[in-house]
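To whoever picks this up:

The nightly regression suite flagged Glyoxalase as changed. Nothing in the input moved, so I suspect the structure step. Input below, exactly as stored in the fixture:
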Amino acid sequence: MKLKHLNLTVTDVSVARNFLEKYFGLTCGASRGNGFATMFDEAGFVLTLMRGSEVHYPNSFHIGFPQESKERVDKINQSLKEDGFDVQPPQQLHSYTFYVEAPGGFTIEVFCHIERELSEN
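Regenerated output under the current build:
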């Protein structure tokens, strides 16, 4: 079974949609002004954005965009930084990762898994 749909409540659908298109390659299939948008990725995942006057996700809530390499994670991080977003440099934690507060009131994790080499001592 695969998760193929997620709905996010956001404070500004248009701004969140533009952000997701620019940095993460999602495409908007349909929208109704600033109240609703349906977005798709290249694998057919459907992300809907619905406007809410107040958005309160738990502190640990986030959505993730896996990348194919550290270089791609670094490139997205640099693009966000150059465009004025408050992002910390990626770190090697559970994966090579960083977080960004997206316009609209939700958090995004950008990451890639790195195979760790095992060495014999």
